[in-house]
C-alpha cells in the first residue's frame, strides 16, 4: 500500500512538472522553412544574386593583396591537370589495341547490366 501511494505521488509530481515545462521548439510544420539566417543566406535571410542598387557602384573596390592558393585550390588544380592529361591520352590512344579492348569491355559491362535488369 505504501509503495503504491509513493508510486502515485511520484507519477503525479512528474505530470505536474511536465505541464509547466516550456516547449523546446516553436509550433511549425516539418516542411516549413524556419525564420532567421540560413546556411547560404547570411544575416539578411535571403541570397542575392544581382543587386540593381549596386549596379554602377565602383566605390567598394577591394585593395587586398593577392593571397596564395589554399591547399584545396592546389588539389583542384592538380586534379584538373590530371584530367587534361587523361583527355590527351584518350585522344592519342584511340585506335590502339588497348583502347579497343577497353571499349569491348565497356560494351560487355553494359550488356551484363542490361541482362541483370532483365532477370529482375
Task: Provide a compact summary of the structure.
The protein is an all-alpha fold.
Explained architecture:
It contains three helices and no strands. The protein has 120 residues and is mainly alpha-helical. The chain has a domain of 30 residues. The longest helix is centred in the C-terminal third of the chain and has 23 residues. The chain is elongated, with a radius of gyration of 32 Å. The model has no long low-confidence stretch (mean pLDDT 77).
Throw out a few tags for this protein:
120 residues; mainly alpha
What topology does this entry show?
Layout: H1 2-19, H2 71-93, H3 97-119
Shape: elongated
Structural class: mainly alpha
- Arithmetic mean pLDDT: 77
- Work out the helicity level: 40-55%
The termini sit apart by 64 Å
Question: What is the element string, with H for helices and E for strands?
Answer: HHH
Main sheet overview:
none
Q: Compute the number of strand runs.
A: 0
Count of runs of 4 or more consecutive helical residues: 3
Unreliable spans = none
Radius of gyration from the alpha-carbon trace, in angstroms: 32 Å
Quaternary structure of the protein:
single chain
Strand content: under 5%
Amino acid at each position: 500500500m505504501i509503495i503504491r501511494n509513493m508510486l502515485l505521488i511520484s507519477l503525479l509530481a512528474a505530470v505536474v512538472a511536465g505541464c509547466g515545462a516550456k516547449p523546446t521548439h516553436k509550433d511549425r510544420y516539418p516542411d516549413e522553412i524556419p525564420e532567421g539566417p540560413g546556411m547560404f543566406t547570411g544575416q539578411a535571410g535571403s541570397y542575392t544574386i544581382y543587386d540593381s542598387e549596386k549596379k554602377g557602384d565602383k566605390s567598394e573596390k577591394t585593395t587586398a593583396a593577392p593571397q596564395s592558393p589554399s591547399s584545396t585550390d592546389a588539389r583542384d588544380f592538380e586534379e584538373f591537370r590530371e584530367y587534361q592529361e587523361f583527355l590527351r591520352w584518350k585522344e592519342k590512344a584511340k585506335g590502339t589495341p588497348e583502347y579497343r579492348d577497353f571499349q569491348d569491355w565497356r560494351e560487355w559491362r553494359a550488356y551484363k547490366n542490361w541482362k541483370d535488369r532483365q532477370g529482375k
